[in-house]
Request: fold
Amino acid sequence: MSKNLNNEWDVIVIGAGAAGLFAAGTAAARNRRTLLLEKNTKLGVKILMSGGTRCNLTHNTDWQGIADAFGKRQGRFLKFALANFPPNRVVSFFHNLGVFTKIEETGKIFPLSNRAIDVRDALVRYASQAGAEIIYPAAVNHVLKTANGFSVRCGDQEFLAASVVIACGGQSYPGCGTSGDGYAWVRQLGHSIIEPRPALVPLRILETWTHHLSGITIPDTGVSVVSTSGKKLVGDRTDFRGSLLFTHRGFSGPAPMNISRVFTDPQNSYDKVLVCDWLPSQPVNALEQDLQTARTSQGGQSLLTWLSNKVPRRLAEALCMNCDCDATLRMAELSRKCQNQLLHQLKACQLNVDGTLGFAKAEVTAGGVELSEVDAKTMESKIAPKLFLVGEILDVDGPIGGYNFQAAFSTGYLAGTVA
Reply:
């Protein structure tokens, strides 16, 4: 940080990610003297990494669809921000900045160029052209309340502001600089922090047979979490359907990553298992009828051949082995016991989760600033007036699909408008 700047500002934004760049640009566009501080040597590092470096901007739905994806509690908190800056406005915003978009079959919205750097550059351009001063690298040491606002210190330099927007993220992908710095500042200012934990993170699976299938993708898998003790799981996001990738340690891909938050939630500390439906589009009774038809009309076909027409061959072999069924058996020779076990393995395969790959591989952080302490209509702290909290530092975490970026843009826009 080499610039010799005036140390008094209307608004200081800490963190030049999606929420921070949006907040800074919006505040500056409203003629507020705005300073944006970023500790990394690059701006928007997490934007550049997101979506396989393509950046999934938002989802092809309305604001209610985004809110619903976050679940009842988080969705209720986000609804005002989302309604004020919904997905169609995000798309229009980027189109106006020259970043045209496309909708993929899954509903995900990406830049037409498939380049996350175009998104990052557009946000930086927006903030800069609106008049925000952007300084980086500038690592913030502390944020303190003063009689007239806040003191923000970076090294030996102090900046004063009437309002501060904290947009420095959570703890996911700490290599991007999101190492949880903001939690200490907001705690010191009086806020409660829900213990941060990894979300949207690959799962480690205890059963080693899954490790031998590393590299196989199942495009459509149903996953759910079941408590073995019979207790009801906390939360309302306990099942998902989508792509699943076998890895040498367990599962990755949208379906298992979306459900990973349940396994890191301390409120769900009792024993639970992951249940996989490898054929979610086929009801169990239809699958059973299909099997019976094969036994009578294709009785000479081997079990492995029949099963390999439904799931990848290596998975078919593993499921036969789990059932203790000879994969070379002709369909006509299948015992009732083997049939029942096979149906169970296909539709309700139970697996033990041995943890996750942690914050280092998590796309978002669950936990963060307690939502009841933040005004949902302004993003302003109810505890420290003129302090605004946006993006991933809040206790909000949505599924894969552009939902988290949408929440960052919407909360950043709202805070920038009010600050």
